[in-house]
Predict the 3D structure of the following.
Amino acid sequence: MTRSKVENRQSKIGNRKSKILVIEDNEQNMYLVTFILEKHGYQVVQAWDGREGIELARQVKPALILLDIQLPVMDGYAVARELRSNLALADVPIVAVTSYAMVGDRERILAAGCQGYIEKPINPETFMDDVERYLPAQPAGGGGDS
Ligand code: MN
């Protein structure tokens, strides 16, 4: 019973199972982002600092990376630059999630290799739409492995 309900719901959202890597050191933001993404059928891989994020990006090859800019050890700019230097990850969109997207920051974010940014505080109403604008198109009807 329960199982078929779950499967039903998943088919309604198109069986999306893409992995999204979230690099975020703030617990509340991590939990909120994870909750929203999982609710929409995505698999979330969590990294709590930039080093771990780069390592996990290599391991799981996510469909998209959400990157906090204010991170311990190495900041989001450095993380984005290092990710962009990895050819195996060249086609993985990186979206900065940042609370201080001033004019200059926006340029720095893009110059570091991010495709765009989403502003904090995270708005649960619009967050998923914002993320999906950056996700590579899923094959219609699914089933493709490539
Ligand atoms: Mn942070």
The pocket of manganese (II) ion is lined by residues 25-26, 68, 70-71 (CB under 6 Å). The mean pLDDT is 87.
